Amino acid sequence: MALYKREWNTSIHQSAPEAPRRRKRQRGLSMFRLKIIAMVLLTLGTLNTAVVMPHIDMNNIGDLTLAILLDAVSWVAIPIFAWITVMGVHHSQHLWHYLGRVLLLAALSEVPYDMATSHVWFDSTSNNPVWAVAVCIVVIVVLRSLDTRPVHDAYTGPVYQVSYGQSIGIRIVVCAAAVLWLILGHFGVRVGVMNEGLVLLAMVIIFEILHRHENTMMYSAAVVGALAGLTPGLGVAVVHYHNDQLGYTKKAVGLGFYVYYVVHLVLFAVLAVLA
Predict the structure, then answer these.
(1) What beta strand segments (E) does the chain contain?
(2) In angstroms, rounded to a whole number, what is the distance separating the alpha carbons of residues 226 and 220?
(3) Which of 5, 105, 191, 250 is the right S-S partner for 154, CB 3.0 to 4.6 Å?
(4) Shortest CA distance to 171 belongs to which of 148, 189, 151?
(5) 183, 198 in Cβ contact below 8 A?
(6) What's the whole-model pTM score?
(7) How far apart (Å, rounded) are the C-alpha atoms in residues 46 and 166?
(8) C-beta of residue 97 within 8 angstroms of C-beta of residue 72
(9) In angstroms, how far is CA 185 from the centroid of its own chain?
(10) CB-based contacts of 42, cutoff 8 Å, min separation 6
(11) 105 and 164 in contact (C-beta within 8 Å)?
(12) How do residues 219-255 score in pLDDT, each as one tens digit?
């Protein structure tokens, strides 16, 4: 959910001169559409923990199936958010502002998240997955800053000149530290089964390291998604149809996704209290 530079093609290309009024429809999914899809899927997961699960009969196979299905469907959003995060670092005009917004979002939404997910004001066993996004941003910056063959985009973060061996060593240490931090922080743990934070980090690392090799990147992410509960693998298929278009030009649209996340958690937290 980042703000992007003009490197993103936000216009709709015109067709040949002989038909100047016709416009070519851009195929694939723009960043705007990917964010919409991810938010819808995320909302289904919140609906499940806030409204559905508190009222299910644990002895009713139909109720249990519905609850599991809703949460599993929400996991499809994990690779989509991973792709959004990677592209955010690659194209953000102000990288540290981007990280600051994510940290602020995580802080503001922590209590509503706990209420909507666990029905308590604070739950140390399942914390807001937005914290995991912040961790992933730091990991991407480290991986990117040590890249010996950087791509030419709008990346505004630091770049360091180190040997290949040093680069590999630092990357391994940082990724291992991120894994440990996500495990200890319980960021994005869903119903005691899915650790969204760890899956998000795995997807982010794959997308960042293999972004020059589209097919290899997608196949690798799909395997990880399949091993992490199957449905995240379906999310990789959605990401595969990205078209490298931003899909909007107004800054307010991008910020609107931040606002929606907090508002939807607050609303479901209220429903959880009233239920």
Answers:
(1) 189-190, 194-195
(2) 10
(3) 5
(4) 148
(5) yes
(6) 0.86
(7) 42
(8) no
(9) 18
(10) 74, 77, 261
(11) no
(12) 999 999 999 988 999 999 999 999 988 888 888 999 9
- Per residue in 167-207, pLDDT (tens digit) is 899 999 999 999 999 999 999 888 777 899 999 999 999 99
Whether residue 154 is predicted with pLDDT greater than 80 in this model: the reply is no
Residue 58, both tokens: 């644990």
Q: Are 221 and 79 in contact (CB under 8 A)?
A: yes
36: Cα separation from own chain's centroid: 12
Q: Measured between alpha carbons, how far apart are the two ends of the chain, in Å? A: 32
| Other beta carbons less than 10 A from residue 240's beta carbon | 18
Structure-token pair, residue 55 = 């009222």
- Point out which residues pair with 29 in neighbouring strands: 242
Which candidate, 116, 121, 120, 129, places its Cα nearest to that of 51?
116
**Span 213-226, pLDDT tens digits:** 999 999 999 999 99
Which has the higher per-residue pLDDT, 50 or 7? Answer: 50
The residues pairing with 187 across neighbouring beta strands, listed in sequence order, are 127
